[in-house]
Amino acid sequence: MTSATRNQVLSLYMRVFRIARGWQSTLPQETESERRYIVQEAQTLFRQNQQLTDHTSIKKCIDECEARIGIGLHYRNPYPRPVSDRHLNQNKCFSFRNYCVISLLSNVMVLFWFFNCSSTCL
Fold it and tell me: Does the keyword Glycosyltransferase apply (predicted)?
């Protein structure tokens, strides 16, 4: 991992903790549990991916994290966005590969929205 990539990952990690510290839930009684969830999820995912050395997989994880931050802030929901498998069931052929393709397309659409949206969207 290059030093620029390392700095980007550490900056993203700190950004997630700053978001968690200032997080306000739509339901006030859930604020503390959602803050704990954000911190635990970040720690788990960053630790899980700390052994990555391939630049493309690191970039993919960075993009996924930025997308989850954008979605979480926009919808005020810290939990991952569910992916609909409605059109997979129409084919009566559910496979992990099909699910991954739909998940990838969903993330691409979110990234497209996130990077093309003005700052007023968030």
Answer: no
CA of residue 9 relative to chain centroid, distance: 13
Tell me, what amino acid is at 76? R
Which structure tokens are listed for 27?
């339901």
Please give the pLDDT value at position 2: 86
Give the Cα separation of 110 and 72 in Å (integer): 11
What share of the chain has pLDDT > 70, as a percent? 67
What is the residue-wise DSSP string for the chain? --HHHHHHHHHHHHHHHHHHHT---SSGGGHHHHHHHHHHHHHHHHHHTTT---HHHHHHHHHHHHHHHHHHHHHT--SPPP---HHHHHTT---HHHHHHHHHHHHHHHHHHHHHS-TT--
Q: What is the pTM of this model?
A: 0.66
Distance CA(80)–CA(93), nearest Å, equals 24
